[in-house]
Amino acid sequence: MSSTAKRKRATNPDPPPVPLQLEGPDFFSLVPDCLVISILSLLPAHDAARTSVLSSRWRHLWKAASLRLDVPVDEQTVSRIFDSHHGPIESLRLSCFTYATMDHFLKLAVQRGIPELTIVFSFFGPDTYELPPFLLRCNSLHQLSLVCCWFHFPLPLLPSIFPNLTELSLTDVLLNNDLLQILLSKCGSLETLRLISSWASPLISISSPRLRKLVFDWGFIYWNDKVTAELIIKDAPNLESLMLGDRETRDANLYVLDAPKLQLLGFLCMDFKVLQLGGTLLQQQPASDFQINAMPCQMTMLSSVKVLAIKMEHSFDKTILDLMRCFPCLENLYILKYGGNRNKNYLDKGIWDEHGFLSFLDHLKTVTVKGFYGNQSDVELVRYLVVYGKVLRKITLLCSKAFSEKFVEAKKRQFCIEKRASSDLELVFFRDTKSNVHFSLWNELMAR
């Protein structure tokens, strides 16, 4: 910049910025307190409390809003919040307090009609925590989550507990089948049960007339090579969703005996030892083949299942069709293939074609394959679905390696896409950079 320009700029400095002039009335100030309180009730506790600095009008509004305290906080912070906040409690998380302090906070929460509660403890305490009777009788509680809790019920046990509890989550909880039976028999309103990383006995039996959703992930912590874990869905007339983790069917026995309304089932690991679905029994043979034994039972198939997710190695592809016979009304199929790119001829076209058209293909609409490598095993599976899937709308292939247009066109020719049974069929290829160990659609399936 020249000296002349510098002198000109010095004599004619830039004008200061003009402050923004807001025109018109302040409509937000006209909003009634009851509506502002409803808005604040949607915020976490620390965010709602910060609004008290806005003006004298806002100073006490958050104290009347529903309290959401979902983040870990220390005992003093919880105490201060309870002392200053006098409104209802929407959700509360209590963790790592002494048992006496925990009882005190729980009593205050129950008095304010707590609907959602999370309790977090450590296994390293000297004693087990006994859930207080006033909590077991709480009518307002609808969702309860227990994390790292080593607890037992007070004796003598109440005739019924948690009268209106609809959702129970147990994570890292010491659990045995007897305790689980008490929970299921005495929680008369329970509809959703989640058992995550729980220290469970090798045998878990589920009998519940109202249960609609069961999530069982890494439930058999005491599982070892000498003991075969067993999960039995014995009596669940209203169960609609059964989501299983990897361990629940890997080298384990799974019995779904009575679940006439089951719509979602997954993930079935094809390394199971025994799998009984209704009146159909599948047993693994030493040669890694599977044998189907029809059992005399009124319900021989799970006709209610619409969504199925399975996890398998490439060598087990031919067992899919045998498994599909159990689900004649299947609409959505998810397959996770793991074990690497094994380019082996485990099967040929004859094995698939000899099955011909199966009844589930009358309803199958979408198929998602994660871990698609494009080897013969993969191609023959997709080709069969393309040629026989009458109402198939979409096949999504999540490829575990980079692919080109040339690769896609070559695979479509191998799929015999020109012979597709459904004119509406869409084939979609995606590059999947995530590990095949975990299925990316797990959360989506659990949300159904």
UniProtKB/TrEMBL annotation:
<feature type="domain" description="F-box">
    <location>
        <begin position="29"/>
        <end position="64"/>
    </location>
</feature>
<dbReference type="InterPro" id="IPR055411">
    <property type="entry name" value="LRR_FXL15/At3g58940/PEG3-like"/>
</dbReference>
<dbReference type="InterPro" id="IPR036047">
    <property type="entry name" value="F-box-like_dom_sf"/>
</dbReference>
<dbReference type="Pfam" id="PF08387">
    <property type="entry name" value="FBD"/>
</dbReference>
<protein>
    <recommendedName>
        <fullName>F-box domain-containing protein</fullName>
    </recommendedName>
</protein>
<dbReference type="InterPro" id="IPR055302">
    <property type="entry name" value="F-box_dom-containing"/>
</dbReference>
<dbReference type="Pfam" id="PF24758">
    <property type="entry name" value="LRR_At5g56370"/>
</dbReference>
<dbReference type="InterPro" id="IPR032675">
    <property type="entry name" value="LRR_dom_sf"/>
</dbReference>
<dbReference type="InterPro" id="IPR006566">
    <property type="entry name" value="FBD"/>
</dbReference>
<feature type="domain" description="F-box/LRR-repeat protein 15/At3g58940/PEG3-like LRR">
    <location>
        <begin position="103"/>
        <end position="335"/>
    </location>
</feature>
<dbReference type="InterPro" id="IPR001810">
    <property type="entry name" value="F-box_dom"/>
</dbReference>
<dbReference type="InterPro" id="IPR053781">
    <property type="entry name" value="F-box_AtFBL13-like"/>
</dbReference>
<dbReference type="Pfam" id="PF00646">
    <property type="entry name" value="F-box"/>
</dbReference>
<feature type="domain" description="FBD">
    <location>
        <begin position="360"/>
        <end position="397"/>
    </location>
</feature>
